[in-house]
Amino acid sequence: MSPQAATPRAPWRASVLTLFPEVFPGPLGASLAGRALGEGIWSCAAHDIRAHATDRHRTVDDTPFGGGAGMVMRPDVLDAALGAVADDRPAIVLTPRGVPLTQARVQALADGPGVVLLCGRYEGIDQRVIEARGLEEVSIGDFVLSGGELAAMVLLDACVRLLPGVMGAAESAEEESFTAGLLEYPHYTRPAVWQERGVPEVLLSGNHAAVAAWRREQAERITRERRPDLWAAQTAHSDTTHCDAGMSGTAREKTERTPL
Ligand SMILES: C[S@@+](CC[C@H](N)C(=O)[O-])C[C@H]1O[C@@H](n2cnc3c(N)ncnc32)[C@H](O)[C@@H]1O
């Protein structure tokens, strides 16, 4: 047994502040994340924000100063809720106006001790508690959800699968989309011919170098076509790597298929 395997790792700790603690762990209790939760690789504590309300109606929101539709979550209640769990972990508020979540940020969070997540509801959260607590504002995409709970689950799922011991070799993250700044190449499995469609011949060749080169070309083509933003970043920072590997990303987009 390696010294690394012999050292028990402290669980990666997620604390989620929400008005709906009963929805956690939800889908995170199944499959890879659920197994890891059961094995103590990570923990998920959902805290009811309402427990920190001070009036007899347990109020957590109020009308917005300046008028307008909807309600705003109160800073004093949220501050008390955050204060009850705050430690050395990054504290994040899920919000559509936050910095879009990336695989690089997910990996950095997975490398740390865990995370504190604040889930908004209604129109949003009083700005003063975001500033006073120095919360990191994170979005999971350019669309609006009804609340931060699903966004928190998305973030947690992305982090947990990267924790040591969660994915086996069969589910390695090394070749996944975004890990190397590219989208992933296409996958194929049996049957070799399905609905008169074959699979790229190179994948049946047994030539590992040719397969790797084909997959790289496909990943480059798909990234170039679908995500010019990722492709621009990739070419800007890895021009020399491409040249060294002899894969310029130019006109090698033809997919050879097995004859039918
Ligand atoms: C109805 S939304 C509030 C939308 C807000 N009024 C706006 O226009 O940006 C309620 C809560 O859902 C969560 N939420 C909605 N969309 C999100 C997204 N794309 N990423 C992260 N959290 C989101 C946030 O916690 C937000 O406070």
Give a structural overview.
This protein is of the alpha/beta class and 260 residues long. The protein folds into 2 domains: 152 residues, SPOUT methyltransferase, trefoil knot domain (Alpha/beta knot); 70 residues, Orthogonal Bundle (Trp Operon Repressor, Chain A), CATH 1.10.1270.20. Helices cover 33% and strands 15% of the residues. It has a 5-stranded parallel sheet with strand order 2-1-6-5-8. It has a 3-stranded mixed sheet with strand order 3-4-7. The chain is elongated and about 70 Å long. Bound molecules: S-adenosylmethionine (SAM). The site of S-adenosylmethionine has 20 residues, from β5, β7 and α6.
Summarize the structure.
This protein has 260 residues and is of the alpha/beta class. It has eight helices and eight strands.
Low-confidence stretches: 242-260
Name of the level-1 CATH class of the largest domain: Alpha Beta
- End-to-end Cα distance, whole Å, is 50 Å
How many helices? 8
Protein structure class: alpha/beta
Fourth-tier CATH superfamily name of the largest domain:
SPOUT methyltransferase, trefoil knot domain
Q: Name every ligand kind in the structure.
A: S-adenosylmethionine
Count of domain modules: 2
Reading side by side through the largest sheet, how are the strands ordered?
2-1-6-5-8
Series of secondary-structure elements, N-terminal to C-terminal: HEHEEEHEHEEHEHHH
The CATH architecture of the largest domain can be given as: 3-Layer(aba) Sandwich
What is the C-alpha radius of gyration, as a whole number of Å? 23 Å
